[in-house]
Amino acid sequence: MHSYDRYEIQEAVFVRWANSLADGTVRELSDILDTKFLSIFVKLITGDSFVSSGSRLQDIQNAFRLVDNGERFNQISMNEIADGNPRAICFAVWQLIQIFWKRFAPADVRDQKLAEALKDWCVERAQRFQVQISDFISSWRDGYALNAILLSYNPELFSMNQICDMRAVDRIEYAMSLAEHHVNTPRLLQPKDFSSERLDMKSVVCYLMVLYLSLTNKESSPQESHSSEQQQIESLESSKSSQSPMIINQKDIAISDSQSTADSGALSGETAQNEAEYSTSKSFEQFPSAPSSRRQSQQAVDVS
């Protein structure tokens, strides 16, 4: 097995995330660091157009400086990027994902680290249905956590009892299908990925980020009378009626938000963090466990 095979799921997730912003123009991992995608990303983050230097590596460095004026990208080797090293590219894309979070997350959480903010949200939402979450991998394998989060936005949507007899892979498919069709959350992961030994924390966090933004997106107009959560509840409720659901697109979130601050300049970034800071144990340390449940999210997965 190639040493980079363990990044297979992560690479696929990052490519799908990039395509959710760039209308399917990214075919493989290295395309995320091509000038075409970086031009789109710089525009979303800063509101400014990106002018190519004619050199791919120089464009990468210029784009990094425009979207983050801190030291986030200092640990990245341009030689490894030029050589197409998947690990180096994945690390660079992970930085872009965190920059995207800081730019488009609600104001009250955008200064939190991505994993920590999502941890707080997931635990609070899932514990309403006695579903315990303790990490970003094993707690998601049985499918209860994803369903509990969606159900927390509309308890009338379905009953947890309805999914108890499903296989784990079917429970995950059920939740991801709801999220995809009713709040337009891109399917960055596949249900079978959750049972894979190659599933990694960053892949799950990336999917949860777009789910969070879909469910909590705020209208660009400050005069909007309805809260974002109420809008999402109404959207999920529409799945039980003949009305068409309100669709929220990740790219639309980014475009509408970036247009409102087109002249604000490049995003001011936080100091670069080592990958270890985003490990599962770090993300959940010193956080009280959710109440124990008959639906323990660490239980064995029945995906056969």
Automatic annotation (TrEMBL):
SMART domains per the UniProt record, alphabetical: CH
Keywords carried by this UniProt record: Actin-binding, Repeat
Top-level division of the source organism's lineage: Eukaryota
Region Disordered, annotated ranges: 219-304
Biased composition (Polar residues): 270-284
The Calponin-homology (CH) domain, residue ranges: 112-216
Biased composition (Low complexity): 219-244, 286-304
A molecular function GO annotation: actin binding
PANTHER family registered for this protein in UniProt: SPECTRIN/FILAMIN RELATED CYTOSKELETAL PROTEIN
Identification of the protein by name: Calponin-homology (CH) domain-containing protein
Organism: Elaeophora elaphi
Lineage summary: Eukaryota, Metazoa, Ecdysozoa, Nematoda, Chromadorea
